Structure prediction request, 110 residues.
Amino acid sequence: MLNRIGKISTYEVQEMELKQLDSIVASENQALGFTTFVVGVFVSTVIGWCSLETEGRSPTTTAVYFATMGVSLILTFWFGLTWYRARKDRPRLLETIRSRSVGGPTGVVR
Prediction:
């Protein structure tokens, strides 16, 4: 079965917008990667803490645990928020580009 192209749309895109789109996607991917990493650290810390004996914990161990848990929790929320904001910027830019559709026939589809 052969699928034909039903419609071809042409848009005016400036180089600045391409660079902006590249920057948005890069920051979105970076934030998502760091979020994934920090969630792993947080979960590993909680599981490690739960597997320790309660009587053998020193004050230093407890302090290190809470510091690691606190930092990883804060970083998880920070990178998650950064990813969420970057994810929202991309559709706005694409909508701006799509609003400048070049009208008229762009070619013949045979």
Summary: Helices lie at 15-51, 59-98. The chain is about 70% helix and 5% strand. The longest strand covers residues 10-11. The beta strands are 10-11, 101-102.
